[in-house]
Amino acid sequence: MEFEVLKRSHGKRNIIIGLFLVVIISAVVLNYTLAKYRVSDSVPIINSEINYKVPDLNMVSLYIANEEEDYVEVDTIPLSGYTLNTEQSYCGQSNRGEIVKDDSIILTYENGLVNVLGISKKGTKCYLYFDREQTVGEGILSNYTNLLTRSDFSTTVEDTTTGTIYYADTSKGRTYYFAGNPTDNWVQFAGFYWRIIRINENGSVRMIYAGEVSGSTEPATTGTSTQIQTNTFNSSEDNNMYVGYMYQSNQVHGLTTDSTIKKVLDEWYEDNLQVNYAQYLSTEVGFCGDREPSTDKMTSNGLGGTGITQTYYGAYIRLVTNKTPTFDCQNDNDLYTVVSSSQGNKVLDYPIGLITADEVAFAGGVYGISNSGYYLFTNQQYWTMSPYYCWGTGQARVFSVRYDGMLPDNNQVVVERGIRPVINLSPDVTITGSGTTSDPYTVVGT
């Protein structure tokens, strides 16, 4: 008898243990099933009580439009850059393999959060379709019907190119840029005029400072008002490191010390953009200060770049020797970006920099040839961000644009030249205007 009681006790205990394991396994399955929706933090269900079982939790399918406007299935709801296609999206129940739409269910989407209102039937599943938002770059590009490409960079571009935009393919995609003398690449932003340099591959817009907005007066195209001040690029010149926007002793691509010109730009950003306008700027794209070294001026050999070793930098070989500019930055350590960027060196305090010598070449500037007919001509001498060379005697030099528009005016970094800030508008800003001096592109909300 005692044995039978003990046997029954063991059986009861096994049943309890079994039930306990079922609860644990169910909880694990439930947690796993919900995981893909938890990472998107975006599917709150607003309704009365619904008695769902674990199999019912596969309740949402997500689709986003790619660049070809085809829908592809994804696991998470996009946080930005998309809108919910409310005409295409729907919820419903399966009936013999067919989905019967429930038109009483309301779907809304904002800031990466989808709300589903009105679910009242068990087994309801939602199919959500998201369309790409048009970037600011795509909006600007739609105004230009004449798309051209350039292959010869040995001659200047001086023609009036209103209505024309050029394009080039890079390692990141396609970029569109202005060359010659367009009259429709003007932007008014943060109380200043800017000229668009190019539409970046991610749809953001790179632009260069062109003066303060002053009442109803149209912006000047020449003179000192086209720059924020004059200053040196760096405080010393007797070492290769001083060609760097940031630098470090005995390091070709060092990043520990700010150059003089970086300090000037950071201070200007703090005074003019940080408080009211930072939200409109891209923190993803960067500014290239290419320090790819070579002891051979005809071709890059990767040697030099430290101390007083005579060194020719990448832009010298591309623009002086070969006339082959590029929009690609050759080394990630020389692509200056802020910490939140997914690329580059992530060392900038603020998303501000300078134009590159390559960008000047794409716009129509040429080594050794004057050009007063393109939009980067200001009748002033101003700095670019691109190292030029360093003499064996220790004269660090950086490209600048000369007063007659020639590229380069290969100045020692200790001479004073103009400073023209470069910034990038975020892809998701909205603009109005037509890009002319009387009707410049303007960022909505500023």
Structural features, described:
This protein has 446 residues and is of the alpha+beta class. The chain has helices at residues 2-38, 136-141, 260-272, 314-321, 357-363; strands at 45-46, 60-65, 71-74, 82-84, 90-95, 98-101, 106-110, 113-117, 125-132, 146-148, 164-170, 173-177, 186-189, 192-199, 205-212, 229-231, 246-247, 257-258, 287-288, 311-312, 335-336, 382-390, 396-401, 411-412, 417-419, 422-425, 431-432, 441-443. The radius of gyration is 29 Å and the shape is elongated. β27 and β28 (441-443) form a beta hairpin.
Structural class: alpha+beta
What would you call the shape? elongated
Q: Spans of 5+ residues with little confidence (pLDDT < 50)?
A: 1-57
Assembly state (oligomeric): single chain
Give a short overview:
This protein is of the alpha+beta class. Helices cover about 15% and strands about 25% of the residues.
Spell out the blueprint of helices and strands.
Blueprint: H1 2-38, E1 45-46, E2 60-65, E3 71-74, E4 82-84, E5 90-95, E6 98-101, E7 106-110, E8 113-117, E9 125-132, H2 136-141, E10 146-148, E11 164-170, E12 173-177, E13 186-189, E14 192-199, E15 205-212, E16 229-231, E17 246-247, E18 257-258, H3 260-272, E19 287-288, E20 311-312, H4 314-321, E21 335-336, H5 357-363, E22 382-390, E23 396-401, E24 411-412, E25 417-419, E26 422-425, E27 431-432, E28 441-443
Parallel strand pairs: 1-8, 2-9, 10-11, 13-28
Antiparallel strand pairs: 2-3, 4-9, 5-6, 5-9, 7-8, 11-12, 12-14, 13-14, 14-15, 15-26, 16-25, 17-18, 19-21, 20-22, 22-23, 23-24, 27-28
